[in-house]
Amino acid sequence: MSVISTVTVTVPATTANLGPGFDCIGAALSLYNRFQFSRLEPSATEKLKITVTGQEAPKVKTDDSNLAYLAFLKLYDRLNQSPPPVAIHIDMQVPLARGLGSSATAIIGGLVGANELAGKPLSQVEVMQLAIELEGHPDNVVPALLGGCRLAASSVKNQPQRRRERPDDDAEGFGWEICDIPWHSSIVPVVAIPDFELSTAEARKVLPNDYSKADAIFNAAHVGLLVRALETGNENWLRCALQDKIHQPYRQSLIKGYEAVQEAAVNAGACGMVISGAGPTLLALTDVTNVDVVVREMAAAWGEFGVKADVRAIDLDTQGAQISS
Q1: Mind listing the pLDDT tens digit for each residue in 109-153?
Q2: Rg (CA), the chain
Q3: Which end of the chain is more exposed for a tag (fewer CB within 10 A), N or C?
Q4: Mind listing the domains of the chain with CATH numbers?
């Protein structure tokens, strides 16, 4: 078997939660980061060389703390093998710290790239499990790997369900059932990406440790309705289904102009608007007839608060991580 010397992995951005689907639902979007991994000669003085292109390239680490490289190392560690010296080139098109899964693209890119260079010893399911361990929750990494809209549910086989100590303590020790959620062609995602960042850690700090039974029931009902609304394109169901009581009420205050942008989107004909991932990107779901006005009005509403936003309609990515060598 010939040894692959260079592999390129193209990974889609993702939007997670979709309102009530906190930490369990995510969808891949047609915006991409590309990661090229090239073996260096074993005798090379440099064991790692990272270069980055793209508008936010200066923000990406180029030493051994780079997330794509950490994921690369994680796979070789799982194989109990020494990683080869490698040159990594990253083309960044997914903005950082905006709620579009930029960290998930790095994790998937690093794991898939390493798996290819190592000769594909791990299955897609095993790569996915490693990705969930690294990310801490499945909502971004699963659709980044597989494409489409996905629901991830954890289970512990042959032992009682253990108590989770923190919101993201659900990666190691769990098996996963991954369910694809059909996305009706009439539903168009519109992303509004602002010119400011919001870290996932900061967005998690504002969440309560406990929720009422009423709020838990509310979200369970709305997740069920969301799955059916996305599948059927029923706009009345979708308007109701996008409501949430677990994370959005607490995170709205972190996003300048949130209520005004939401009102503008709905008044322009969108079925609703949600926070994409941890934010600050906002995601509206609308039909094709209202796309242009939704885009225009969301941008204008944020502009009233001095926020410049890249607002655009975007396609669902159905392919997930793509490999070329």
Answers
A1: 999 999 999 999 999 999 999 999 999 889 999 999 999 999 999
A2: 20
A3: N
A4: 6-182+317-324 (3.30.230.10), 188-313 (3.30.70.890)
Edge-to-edge strands of the sheet including 282-286? 272-275, 282-286, 188-194, 309-313
Q: What is the DSSP string of 147-210?
A: -SEEEEEEE-TTSPPPPPSSTT--STT-EEEEEEE---TT-EEEEEEESS---HHHHHHTS-S-
Q: Tell the burial category of 288 from Cβ atoms under 10 Å away from its Cβ (0-12, 13-18, 19+).
A: exposed
- Which alpha helices (H) appear in 170-324, and where do they start and end? 200-205, 213-232, 235-241, 248-251, 258-267, 291-303
Identity of the amino acid at 302: W
At 205, list the tokens.
């700090």
Cα angle at 314 between 316 and 291, to 5 degrees?
Answer: 120
Q: Which of 32, 43, 41 is closest to 9 using CA atoms? A: 32
Which residue has 């991580």 as its token pair?
Answer: 321
pTM, full prediction: 0.91
